[in-house]
Amino acid sequence: MGYGRVPCAVLFLCLFISFCLSYQCLADEVEANQTAQLLIDASKGSGHPIPQTLFGIFFEEINHAGAGGLWAELVSNRGFEAGGSNTPSNIDPWSIIGDESFLIVSTDRSSCFERNKVALRMEVLCNSEGTDICPSGGVGIYNPGFWGMNIEQGKSYKVVFYVRSTGAINISVSFTSSNGLQTLASTNIIASASDVSNWKKMEVLLEAKATNHNSRLQLTTTKKGVVWFDQVSAMPLETYKGHGFRNELVEMLADIKPRFIRFPGGCFVEGEWLRNAFRWKESIGPWEERPGHFGDVWMYWTDDGLGYFEFLQLAEDLGALPIWVFNNGISHNDQVDTSSILPFVHEALDGIEFARGDSSSTWGAVRTAMGHPEPFDLRYVAIGNEDCWKKNYRGNYLKFYDAIRHAYPDIKMISNCDGSSHQLDHPTDFYDFHAFVSEYAVTGKDAGTGSLLAALAEAGFLIGLEKNSDVVQMVSYAPLFVNSNDRRWNPDAIVFNSSQVYGTPSYWVQRFFTGSSGATLLNATLQTNSSMSLVASAITWQNSEDEQTNIRIKVVNFGNDSVKLKISVSGLNPNSVKLSGSVKLSGSTKTILTSTNLMDENSFEEPKKVALIQTQLENADKEMTVLLLPYSFTSFDLLEESASLRIGEADSSSISSI
To answer: Pick from 261, 233, 236: which is nearest to 246 by CA?
Structure first.
């Protein structure tokens, strides 16, 4: 594989940034309204196929991307395990309603779940009658979720919890405003002493009568006695395809049309210490039985409701291929010696069997019991994350590689080591970060929290990777998500809070490449007297929605002047095909990403300050002149009126045929 060209694409990214840092590019030396020409050869067989898997996404549990984000669970620390296994323990962010004269709240190890024994114990000292009258509204506990729960009028929410008591119970379950004064939805659970003398699962459906984006869940009572709670969950009834994912966040991902999803990290996979690394077996099965863990790299607790199974399900829901990154016995601070790595190897093999094994296999049966009898389409695994320089990486890697190759010879394995400049000393199918560019992004002060400047540099970089797609097989941006209340890394592609979401300019850049995976890269020659101010590419691709063939031309203008670009497309059959600018089938279109200032960013107040603007391209033809605005990324989709033309054998096809 000719790796030599890939570093050039990386160099382009650095050059683009340096040329634009002061908002003045080389175009300053050229007169305004400069001209350039782009020559495109669309003749049959002249281009080369782009890998079906070129553009995808990388999800890491960072910035509360999953817990309090993609996973729609509203309750934070639902099992009271975040404070540790020793009791009494911290129940944060749970808080108490009422003072210690009315109730005493603590934790103990009385839960019915073996892998998470901590439960909350609430001793109520007041009553609804007699001398010790409870305050109006009762006493109890509340959970604010992840910086406020988004409760919306007319929508339904399923609340589940486990309870036991020394006597009869009358528990009010309600969503209220953050101060508890406004009740959005409420119901009462009444049970006799015999019903709750042992742990019992309670489930209610609450329909909100009003909207509040900063709500909380309350469990209150006016009945004296001792009550234990455990595994308290609240989920919106409507989630993406009914699988527990927050609708609007997954829809943002679906619009990118990713061909793969790499998960669950990142450093999240490694941990600062192995004892805190993500372990897939602890993240499957009934949610109540998952112990959760403290992610000591990004410093927060996850209940692991978003576990290995859910990641595989998400990939399937998106029509993307899963890439599972598993721990190879190495963390940031400790590592397993190769002589002792075999149990970790077996754990990885079990994980592959969970994804791919039939229902009669040990771990395939577990997957089937979780509601997915058919195997998931797992074809790629990454052995560790960014560990190449660690002492035991090579030895551990070879143990994993040999075992997986023997058991699953078709699975493609990804090494952490870079083989672009020298021959690797171990076998691999892909190496990260060149053949697989798993984490790209422009960072630093000029990127801000997601600037147009950063996005334009990334656009140029991606065009470079697209041109080198005979070498680069996969590419994904990182980080993907950030909860605005917990920014651990800047910038990110998608920003959200409990009720809002927007894409940064970097997100919108990815939308330009939705048709590239599986397309054909055309030979395109850019003629300009300022070669560093423009970068361009051209592909032919088939829209999976209407099966129409398009030529997509993408151009980044890094200059502060407009450019008149003459586009010439040769090689089209003049008798059967011409480019259409008609309204028919939506016609040919122009899409542009730009703004008035290079440092412009999107926000909750202006979510599309820097976003795609699409218009009809009226003058679409084989020969046409278009205007490129300063500091802009523009694409031209030229619709071919005849669908009979297919350039080469590698036109885009649906993910199901990959």
So the answer is: 236
